[in-house]
Design a protein that fits this description.
The protein has 10 helices and 9 strands. The chain has helices at about 1-10, 15-25, 30-35, 45-60, 65, 90-100, 115-125, 135-150, 205-215, 230-240; strands at about 70, 75, 105-110, 130-135, 155, 170-175, 215-225, 245-250, 255-265. Strands 5-4-3-6-7-9-8 form a 7-stranded mixed beta sheet, with helices on both faces. Strand 3, helix 7 and strand 4 (about 130-135) form a beta-alpha-beta unit. Helix 1 (about 1-10) packs across helix 2 (about 15-25) and helix 6 runs parallel beside helix 7.
């Protein structure tokens, strides 16, 4: 552990201590508490495995991709480089969506990724949940997680609404919203670019979803987006231009704008 701390600190990891403990726990097929309280030795093969993980982390590969594990909304999820790593900020999107979901409602997620949002919704609401993604490999990850948690969500391939024919009470999305020329931390280079970049202004997918969501929402239906911290005004303007009403912005635990939600207006089509 001391060597792990030293190497990851030298590599620039701000969470070198936690990273080391999680990677050693993974190598030992144990939990972090075991690592912190265990007084025995580490078998040579497990030590070699651990230092292999440390080497990957030194190259800035996220711990979640090394361990293929991430926690989100109280759920343990499988993740790999076909999907974004679910962030804690996205739990705000789930919380705001759950406030809108009523018993028997139909919800659609655009951009399922790991399935984190849809599975969390299904596990916490008596609703029908569908989710789409443009990436077949991402859908495989989402299905694996849904099966693990016994969440009966319907997953299917679609480029936004291209294969969507049903009507929904709720449409929710955490679309790619990074500007094409924006520099990102080195660790993010392991994450799928299609799930990160949203065009020159970062608004490409908000624009396309907003322009077409009215025809897929039932009367009084609600559209919810996760947004970048500086995008609330622009996304709200897009919603207004497309005849959405009752636009609201919710903040994350840091006080930054994180979710925009709006209701389908009477003139939406």
């Amino acid at each position: 552990m001391r060597e792990g701390y030293s190497r990851l600190r030298a590599a620039g990891s701000e969470t070198y201590s936690l990273d080391t403990q999680l990677l050693l726990a993974h190598a030992l097929n144990a939990d972090r508490l075991h690592v912190l309280t265990y007084a025995g030795g580490v078998p040579e093969d497990r030590a070699d495995l651990f230092f292999g993980y440390i080497e990957q982390r030194e190259r800035h590969k996220p711990v979640q991709y090394i361990t293929n594990y991430c926690e989100f909304f109280g759920l343990g999820l499988y993740v790999d480089e076909n999907v974004l790593i679910p962030r804690a900020d996205t739990e705000i999107l789930v919380e705001e969506t759950l406030k809108c979901l009523k018993k028997g409602d139909r919800a659609l997620e655009i951009g399922a990724g790991s399935g984190a949002v849809s599975i969390a919704l299904k596990k916490n609401a008596d609703a029908v949940v569908h989710a789409v993604d443009v990436c077949p490999n991402a859908l495989c990850v989402a299905q694996k997680n849904a099966d693990t948690h016994g969440a009966s969500i319907c997953l299917f391939l679609s480029d936004i609404f291209s294969n969507v024919t049903d009507s929904y009470n709720i449409i929710v999305s955490n679309p790619p919203y990074i500007k094409n020329d924006e520099e990102l931390p080195e660790s993010v280079r392991y994450e799928p670019k299609k799930a990160l970049y949203g065009g020159a202004d970062g608004l490409r997918f908000y624009r396309e979803i907003t322009e077409n969501a009215g025809g897929r929402l039932a009367k009084g239906g609600v559209l919810l987006f996760e947004i970048g911290a500086s995008q609330a005004a622009e996304v709200s303007e897009l919603l207004t231009k497309n005849n959405f009403v009752n636009i609201q912005v919710a903040q994350d635990l840091s006080g930054l704008d994180r979710v925009v939600k709006a209701q389908k207006g009477n003139t939406n089509v």
